[in-house]
Amino acid sequence: MTGKIKVKSMNNDNLKMFMGKYGIGLVLLLMMVVIGIMEPTFATSKNFMNVATQVAINGMISYGMCLAITTGGIDLAVGAQLALTSCVLGVTITNSGMNVWTACGVALMVATFFGFLNGFLIAKFNMFPFVVTLSTQLIIRGLSQVISGGKAISLTSEAFKGIYSNKFLGLPIPIVILIVISIIMYLLLHWTKFGRYIFAVGGNVNAAIASGVSEFWTKVGVYTVSGFLAGVAAIIFTAKTGSAQSNIGVGYETDAVAACVLGGTSFAGGIATVPGVLMGIFIIGFIYNGMNLIGVSSYYQSIVKGCVIIGAVLLDMVMNKRNR
Amino acid sequence: MMKKVLAITMAITMTFGLMACGSTKTETAEPAAPAETTTEETTEAETTTEDAVAEVAAGADVNGDGKVIVGYISKNLTDPFHAPINEYAEKTLNQMKSDGVIDDWTGILDGETDPNKQIDRADECITKGCDAVIVLPAESEASDPAVTKLADAGINVIVVNSKTTSTDARAIAYCGSNDVEAGKMLGEWVVKNVPDGGKYIHCTGILGNSAQIDRGAGIAEVMSAHPEFEMVGEPDTQWSGDKAANATTDAIAQYGDELVAVICDNDDMSSAAQRAANDAGRSDIICVGVDGNQNPLQMIKDGDLGATVLQDGVGQIAAAINVITALINGEEYDSAPVIPFVLITKDNVDEYLQ
Amino acid sequence: MEKNTDGKNEYILQCEGISKAFGGTQALKDVQLYVKPGEVHALMGENGAGKSTLMKIVIGLHKQDKGEIIFEGQPYQVKGPVDAINAGIAMIHQELNPEPHLSIAESIFLKREDTVGKFFLNKKKQNERAGEILKQFDFPYGPKTLIKELTLAQVQMVEIIKAVSSDARMIIMDEPTSSLDSEETDHLFRVIRELKAKGVAIIYISHRMEEIFKICDTVSVFRDGMFITSAPLSEISRDELISKMVGRKVENVFPKVDCKIGDVVFKAENLSGKGFKDINFEVRAGEILGVSGLVGSGRSETMRAIFGLDPIDGGKMYLEGKEIKNKNPRAAINKGICMVNEDRKNYGLCLLRSLRENISLPNLPQKQKGLLINQRREMKECEEVAKQLTVKAASIEHDAFSLSGGNQQKVVIAKWIMANPKLLILDEPTRGVDVGAKSEIHSLMCQFAAKGMAVIMISSELPEIMGMSDRILIYHEGTINGEVTREEILSSSATEEVILAKAFGGK
């Protein structure tokens, strides 16, 4: 009798473990199959390439957001970071005629600095990340309006626009960037000391401190990385549109948070995986792309998006019930 | 446990399915029988009049897949100026589809007022095999890659409402109005109604938008010829009625009776500004803007607002669809139809109020 | 079963043939429990024996798969704790979790507020009623005092008052003394005796043997989800009870081995900080230094400051003769000072992460290969140390959450053992840990000492500290008020009474 129960429970447990780990992947797969059946043009390599290129921007932001959420915080300044970096690129390349690569370096430094500033304010004064990034977001966007004079700055440099349109080994550069950053993020979160400290600070900050982890440097590091990634996103964005503007990136944190949540990042902190977030990023991308190809009226699209996110989170909670 | 998981997965799939069904239903709102005859008709047409088919292929079916598919990239779905445009496009294109004039269209793609998203939507139009795409750009510079991308894919692009940088070079047609004209009309209305002149403020749209730049130029052109007027502020009100109302109350507090007019880049702002002025007991202040949205029209009818300058968005999109029809029929078309602005006052408001 | 024939009304609570499974784990197998009115009934067993599960069924947090509960002669079935309170059964939880911003009155009348009409609270009436009840219990605070201003013991008392005021005929207390010092414990016992005199039945769950024999009338023992025995405490000896609980005979309660005591490892000189002043002591290699005293006497505060968790205001510390300063725990860990905190939930583990990540967390700098962690080496070393400390888990990749309290504590110790410290500080290492794991932790401490580590152990349990220490420092109000040696204990010249007297400020 007991033997039987044990066998059954083992299977159940393994299945739960499996679903807990790969449940979101199944959702992604199911989505792709359903859309593919409804609209054959969806399942073409060209379309997948398109989606992968499209999600690169949200991908960068989502990884940064994922780190912030994992430490129990949030980074609402990413959209404004996008605008500021874009304007820095416009001013340096078009107005000052700086070399494209030097300009990218400067822009990334600016983005990284403001990420650092976010982290410093949050960690040093123990302020709520929500409040800090909500405020710095205004400052950063204001700064981008100041340096651009509120006007669009056009970027005509073909070398710069090539960051979006050129190919490397047959892959558009944004996809290459997405792959490289995904690998770096995977190693960073799962294979380095810093990554472990992020999980520890998010999971139980007191225990982390009592284990010799510096809460300050972990948080500063997280927001700095988030700022840097927003900068990378801004470079792709600006190369894509060929124009630097201070009004871009409004509401981009929403899709980033959605991708993180879909990818199993816990808002309570301490839980996240990079493959999960990557799948979340693609789910968000496929929702837009798939529904447009099927011809779902745009009026319904945000409803569907909301339902999918809630559904996926419910799914995740059911899977991980044994943990809570 | 498993059951729950299944249930949720099912729910997600069903949401998808339902949405898709919902959309196909609206598209084929006509009874099923005529839809069938439509396909018969087209096959008939293809077999009988070969010349006509050849023409169609040359003019409209650019990718040669035997289907004419139209794309529609909106600026957004939320702005009251764009709502009737989208509505007209949806109605007309659905009708054209059920009449068999076109084989399919993408539905209204949401540009979210974001050039990045508009470029992504252009990718989807290419994937979907569109032959002609209507684009309502969010930005003159940043949305341009959407136009060039489509043009590079050999698709006929028709730009509506505002130009992007390479519209003249790459699009087959631009259907819009001259925003400088609208700005002039605003200025002239103020000059006419306040003969003695005075102080005024100019509530701007989002800086950098072509409509903001051109309308501002038109306003400046007229007002600079009238030294009795003095501009005392140019608040960055970002197309937002709420911000314009705040700017107006601030200006009233600051300049009192000297403030005579509030010129706004759109009439969401001018109607909100007028309402704020009226609430402050200053219904004498002349507020005027561009667009012809329903709310300001209602205010004109009620006597709360003097005038507004209507940008005939529906006229613009109708012109764009005419270009597509002409392409299909192999007829000539005007590649740059200018749709005039209309000054709306109490006298003619009923024609435009729905 | 024969007891049942004595007459139905003899028992206030009868649980018969209760079974409960979670997934595939059988938490309870056909257990029984009979409680008489006006008795204090102890529930004993190791963690995971099924006591908590049975109590959760009684208050309606779980539903039994099989079996019947009769309360006051009626079949009893409740939907949750609120329902249970209405039926007359209240539970005081191990981890008290009242809303800190409520007043005492609001807390007492939570979920059964006095209202005017349907929605509006009648605060005045509520405060008056609460005031009367508090007076009956000689509670030193008024009804408007906020819960957050009270000590843990007082909060617990409020919970008890709340239970009694809602006309509970049975109160379940889960480890009620785990955060109380001896004075507070005595007060609790007085209250329990008063309740008993009123005919209230009390189910008392505790790991502390002394308390059980002091306050309880009857004991029911559980092991591995099964009911083992029930007997009046007057008829059962302490050793019998332990052997029933662990299923084997425990020969020596404290496995203290005398080790070779070496050089001074750590020395504190006139150390002062928040909650302690002018602390002087030294601890040698191979020595287990016990630290005793009341809760709040400055013993934990001193150790936290030495470990770098709290600032030090004055004085000097020496490690192996060299003066050191610990700005934060990292500095302490790097020098070889590690500390197992008393608050395991807050300072011990990241419960949602795996055992491997928890164990290696403080030791990551040693596990790096270039920029990355050498995961293979990490896994191997974590497995070794987990095995050495007999952590019972299916795999080190499991969440720490899934482990029992005792095993979680072993994981906390494991992470410090991996750091190979010179000085290991253990603050209440066996609190909330079952008997089996407790004695395992004790043997581990001896092993560490034998390897030449200096060990400091803080404990509120006098038998534990007397059984395990080579030397005992006794704190009183922030200073060290005496010291006893193992020789004095063995020669019975230092008894529990002597140590307690010093802890209360006597000489």
TrEMBL record, chain A:
Provide a Gene Ontology MF annotation, just one.
transmembrane transporter activity
Assigned keywords, A-Z: Cell membrane, Membrane, Transmembrane, Transmembrane helix
Would the keyword Membrane be found if you checked this record's keyword annotation? yes
Q: Where are its TM segments located?
A: 21-42, 48-69, 100-121, 168-189, 196-214, 220-239, 260-287, 299-319
Q: Where in the cell is it found?
A: Cell membrane
Transmembrane helix: is it a keyword of this entry? yes
The Gene Ontology CC terms held by the record are: plasma membrane
How is this protein situated with respect to the membrane? Multi-pass membrane protein
- Spell out the protein name for this chain: Ribose transport system permease protein/inositol transport system permease protein
UniProtKB/TrEMBL annotation, chain B:
Keywords of the record, alphabetical order, are: Signal
Periplasmic binding protein domain span: 70-332
Record-linked Gene3D superfamilies: 3.40.50.2300
Can you tell which superkingdom this protein's organism belongs to? Bacteria
Which GO molecular-function terms appear in the entry? carbohydrate binding
> What Pfam family is a match for this entry?
Peripla_BP_4
Q: Name one GO cellular component term.
A: cell envelope
Q: Where is this region: Disordered?
A: 27-48
Which segment of the chain is annotated as a signal peptide? 1-20
Family as reported in the entry's similarity comment: Belongs to the bacterial solute-binding protein 2 family.
Write down what this protein is called.
Monosaccharide ABC transporter substrate-binding protein (CUT2 family)
UniProtKB/TrEMBL annotation, chain C:
The record's GO CC annotations read: plasma membrane
**Membrane topology listed for this record:** Peripheral membrane protein
A Pfam family for this UniProt protein? ABC_tran
Quote the subcellular location field of this record: Cell membrane
Task: Give all residue intervals belonging to the ABC transporter domain.
Answer: 13-249, 259-502
Which residue spans adopt a coiled-coil conformation according to this UniProt entry? 372-399
Q: Which GO terms describe its molecular function?
A: ATP binding; ATP hydrolysis activity
Please name the InterPro entries in this protein's record.
AAA+_ATPase (IPR003593), ABC_carbohydrate_import_ATPase (IPR050107), ABC_transporter-like_ATP-bd (IPR003439), ABC_transporter-like_CS (IPR017871), P-loop_NTPase (IPR027417)
Q: Which UniProt keywords apply?
A: ATP-binding, Cell membrane, Coiled coil, Membrane, Nucleotide-binding, Repeat, Sugar transport, Translocase, Transport
The superkingdom listed in its UniProt entry is Bacteria
Q: Could you tell me what this protein is called? A: Ribose transport system ATP-binding protein/inositol transport system ATP-binding protein
Originating species: Kineothrix alysoides
Q: What is the lineage of its organism?
A: Bacteria, Bacillati, Bacillota, Clostridia, Lachnospirales
